[in-house]
Structure formats: structure tokens, C-alpha cells
Design goal:
By secondary structure, the chain is of the alpha+beta class. 23% of the residues lie in helices and 31% in strands.
């Protein structure tokens, strides 16, 4: 397999339409019913922490970070992480994750949560959220509700229902 000439860069407003098409290819119409989508609904993601991946002029991946709160504590929800199906298994998702988590840590953020595949996200340090500590706005498999502390012991400061931070 030939190596990709992958370009990882911060998301720009010009990427919006290409990212929407990518989400449609990667997740289909059912994406709107997912709990993670409902959490982000109506909120603006942090473009400064959101990252894209391109091969040539073709956008092949994207990851977004959205501000959320629980118990008055602000932190981030990662997602969606989308990779064009034709580029799956080629390291695009890993490169996007590394870039977005580095950006979040450099911005001084303390915590990132997500709903996703634990074996994939464990390699970045994500672990299951303790049962009952944080509650999402819809059903979620507890084994898929994950958190990564960017600052030690930050997770313990956030408790209760998680909601999009619409102040951004």
C-alpha cells in the first residue's frame, strides 16, 4: 500500500460543506439520532481545536471539539471523528486524534469526553467514565462513554448532566 501524502491542519470556515458531505458518507442519515449528535445539537464547535485531513484537494477526515458543561464545569466533547470510508485503516483517524488532543492540551483544556469504540480510543488514554458521574442527553452504552483527562484529576470536578455550552 502506498503511503498517503496526508495534510493535517486546523479546520477553516471554508471546510464546512466538505465536512458535511464527509459526515454523510461516513455516518449516513442515522447520525442525527445518535446521543453524541444530540449533545452537540445547536452548539458551535471550537474551530481552533477542530482538525481536518486532506489528500491533495480531497478532504478525507475531520474531527471536531465542542464545548460542554456539567455541574458548572466546562470541558470538551470530541466528535464526530469522521474518515472517508475509502481511506479507512490508513492512519487518518489516528493522525486527527493526535492533532486535536495536542491542540486541546496546548489550549489548557482539562477534559475530553466522547462516545466511541473503547479499543480504538484507549490507545490515546481514554477510559470509561465512572458510572453515574456524567449523564448524556440520551441512551449510551456505558462501555462507549469515555473520558481523557488532560489535567490530572479533572474528571472528578465534573458531575451530573452534560450539556452543550452554547455561550461560545
Amino acid at each position: 500500500m502506498q503511503a498517503l501524502s496526508l495534510v493535517i491542519r486546523p479546520e477553516t470556515p471554508d471546510d464546512h460543506d466538505a465536512i458535511e458531505r464527509l459526515h454523510a458518507r461516513a455516518f449516513g442519515p442515522g447520525r442525527y439520532a445518535r446521543t453524541a449528535f444530540r449533545l452537540r445539537e445547536g452548539a458551535t464547535h471550537r474551530a481552533d481545536l477542530s482538525v481536518t485531513a486532506s489528500v491533495g484537494s480531497f478532504l478525507v477526515g475531520s474531527v471536531r471539539m465542542a464545548p460542554v458543561t456539567a455541574g458548572g464545569v466546562g470541558f470538551l466533547a470530541l466528535g464526530p471523528l469522521a474518515v472517508d470510508p475509502s481511506f479507512s485503516g490508513r492512519g487518518v483517524g489516528t493522525a486527527l486524534m493526535q492533532a486535536s488532543l495536542t491542540a486541546a492540551a496546548e489550549a489548557g483544556e482539562g477534559l475530553v469526553i466522547l462516545v466511541g469504540d473503547a479499543p480504538f480510543y484507549a490507545r490515546f488514554g481514554f477510559r470509561p467514565v465512572p458510572a453515574g458521574q456524567l449523564v448524556l442527553p440520551g441512551p449510551v452504552d456505558p462501555a462507549r462513554f469515555l473520558a481523557l483527562e488532560l489535567k490530572p484529576d479533572f474528571l472528578a470536578t465534573a458531575q451530573g448532566p452534560v450539556a452543550a455550552d452554547r455561550r461560545s
